[in-house]
Write a structure and sequence with these properties.
CATH class of one domain: Alpha Beta
Radius of gyration: 23 Å
Bound molecules: flavin mononucleotide
Number of strands: 6
Strand order of the largest sheet: 3-4-6-5
GO molecular function, one term: oxidoreductase activity
Order of helices and strands: HEEHHHEHHEHHEHEHHHHHH
Keywords: Flavoprotein, FMN, Oxidoreductase
CATH topology of one domain: NADH Oxidase
Distance between the termini: 75 Å
Family: Belongs to the flavin oxidoreductase frp family.
Number of helices: 15
CATH superfamily of one domain: NADH Oxidase
Protein name: Nitroreductase family protein
Oligomer: single chain
InterPro entries: Flavin_OxRdtase_Frp (IPR016446), Nitroreductase (IPR029479), Nitroreductase-like (IPR000415)
Low-confidence stretches: 1-40
Largest sheet: 4 strands, antiparallel
Strand content: 5-15%
CATH architecture of one domain: 3-Layer(aba) Sandwich
Mean pLDDT: 88
Length: about 325
């Protein structure tokens, strides 16, 4: 009779079914089925080697920042990658509620909780919501939205504040200002990112969908949103398809985004060049169309094709009661 698997093979932190390694820096490959303690293969990977490897994926070998402080939560953040291929399995019981608890634990401007989330799991509603994200310009949609078990629509939501103030008879002037729109949008984003971190900690995969604003008016109608609210962005969540693993997308050198005491445009622009070869390697190895970062930025900055309907957002917001003064 086969011996029980060694505890270290089944504890969280071992690499059974996980992409990670043991937290002691020892990678354990447990050969389930044989189940002999002696049968596991120990591959020694030092923690520093593992961290270096992760940082190189994030920044490219030449641009790895020095001196990072490390722990499991930081590692989880640095391991993020958007997932666009999902198994059809439903979300594990409790995972949506866990994501929302994480989202509600995020800071919220003035404690106003000016966001909501609509979790779409009904296949028919999901198909309609997915159809609203299809690119008119390029004629492509995100098929993975229908594939995944849940499409979360994050709502910048001034409707509750508006209702409460209306009931109180205080007037609602503040809601009319651009800053209120921004506050609700920031609240939604801050909450959503906490939900992403929670989902990934549960082994789920996630991708944001800004294309949920392509037809913002229709999306609001589909979800029966009240006035003074709109879908700021969507988020697909589900179990990543292991047959289509996703690579970590590298970021520019820290000096492109990090300034000390005052902003230096020169320093920022000087670091663009260092990003290009790193991004090129990533695009090549992930089978994506190879373009420079400059080309990508210039396209998204200049082409109305990129906007894909989102140029109508101001009109939609006005019609939904946002004055944006
Ligand atoms: C607000 C926001 C909107 C996004 N919208 C889309 C989208 O509509 N479709 C998509 O495939 N990815 C979308 N993404 C994912 C980005 O493309 C992705 O985060 C970026 O390329 C970096 O890759 P990574 O998340 O794997 O690190 C969005 C991300 C953010 C933050």
């Amino acid at each position: 009779m086969a011996a029980a698997l060694p505890r270290s093979c089944v504890e969280p932190g071992s690499d059974v079914g996980l992409p990670g390694f043991g937290s002691d820096g020892v990678r354990l490959r447990c050969q389930a089925g044989i189940g002999q303690y002696e049968s596991r293969e120990r591959v020694f990977v030092s923690q520093s080697e593992e961290r270096q490897n992760l940082l190189e994926q994030r920044y490219g070998q030449a641009n790895v920042p020095a001196g990072l402080i490390w722990n499991e939560r930081i590692q989880g953040l640095l391991e993020h990658r958007s997932v666009r291929a999902f198994l059809p399995d439903p979300l594990p019981a409790g995972s949506l509620e866990t994501m929302v608890a994480a989202a509600q634990s995020a800071s919220t401007s003035s404690g106003l909780n000016q966001w909501s989330v609509v979790a779409v799991t009904d296949p028919q509603v999901k198909a309609k919501a997915a159809a609203l994200t299809v690119s008119e310009t390029f004629g492509i949609g995100s098929t993975f939205i229908e594939q995944a078990p849940a499409f979360l629509l994050w709502v910048a939501d001034l409707s509750r504040s508006h209702s409460i103030a209306t009931e109180a008879g205080t007037g609602t002037e503040v809601v009319d200002y651009l800053d209120s729109f921004l506050m609700a949008s920031i609240d939604a984003a801050v909450a959503a990112q906490n939900a992403v971190v929670a989902a990934e900690a549960l082994g789920l995969g996630v991708v944001y969908i800004g294309a949920a604003r392509n037809k913002a008016d229709e999306m609001a109608q589909l979800l029966e949103l009240p006035p003074h609210s709109f879908v700021a962005f969507g988020m697909v969540v589900g179990s990543p398809d292991p047959a289509q693993p996703t690579q970590i997308r590298p970021r520019p050198p820290q000096a492109l985004v990090l300034h000390h005491d005052r902003y230096s445009a020169q320093q920022s622009m000087d670091n663009v060049e260092a990003y290009e070869p790193v991004l090129r390697d990533f695009l090549e190895s992930s089978g994506s169309t190879v373009r420079t970062w400059r080309e990508m930025v210039a396209f998204s900055t200049s082409s109305m094709d990129y906007m894909d309907g989102r140029q109508n957002l101001r009109e939609t917001l006005h019609s939904r009661g946002f004055q944006l003064r």
